[in-house]
Structure formats: structure tokens, C-alpha cells
Amino acid sequence: MEEGTSMSPGICGVTASDQGFDISHWDSREDCETRQILDRVADKWSLLVIALLDERSLRFSELRRAVHGVSQRMLTRTLRHLERDGLVHRTVHPVVPPRVDYSLTPLGASLHSTIKALVDWTETHKGAIAAARDAYDLRVAEEAAIAATTPAAAERI
Questions:
Q1: What is the CATH number of the domain that holds 111?
Q2: Where is the HTH hxlR-type domain (predicted)?
Q3: By residue range, what is the domain housing residue 131?
């Protein structure tokens, strides 16, 4: 069973309640294989690793240096998940000391184009997102200031 999940990967069966289900909308049920794959490939470490491996094959130590903030354990887990899902190929070279290279499989390379589209979208909209964050932060601060001046808040002090 996958760590962090309550069920092993499964295939979502079509039930009577699913009859009008549009396949273009992924199923959010926990036991849905699509959701489980999305959970693995769309996490922050997987996205970064796939983006880096699109440029060239890298050794573990090169990936660790390039992916700022990732622990050795998390990078190892990420690479194992990506390898298990057929997105990354692990090549062990019979030399001393041992050398292991990681590269994208054709399946992983096909995912990279989707990730690139997401990065392009982010670059296009980062100004709007920053403005939305600023507006949200201002609104929350104003609401907190108003709440602090109400009689109920004054009684708590």
C-alpha cells in the first residue's frame, strides 16, 4: 500500500450514479487511480525533477543540488515513485564507486510538455495572482481590525 494513502491504486468503476459523468473531469474519489497518479506527478518535488531531467540525464547528487530544499529521503522517494510510474529511467553503471543516472522515459517526456504549459500559465498570470494575494491579505487584516474593535472582542481582553 502506498504511504500516505488509505487504499492501494485501483481503477474507478462506473456506477449507476456515474452515468452522466464527463471523463474530461477527473474523478476525485480517493480510490481513483487517476487521482492517485495526479497526486504523485503533480507534487512540487516531482514537477521540479521532471523539469530538470528534461534537459539531460542527472545523477542523484546533481538532482539534490539542483532541487533546492529537498531532503535526501524525499528526493529518493520522489525518484522511486517516478520510476515506478514509468516516468523516470534509472541506469546503474557497473563502476566503482557506483554511478546511477536518472533520465526521463518517453512517457515522462510527454508529461514535461504539460508541465511546461503550467509554468507558462504561471508566468503569464503571476502578476494577477500577486495582486489577488495582496487584496486578500489587506481584506483579512481589515476584517481582523474590525473584529478586534467589536464589544465582544473588547470583553475578551
A1: 1.10.10.10
A2: 32-130
A3: 42-156
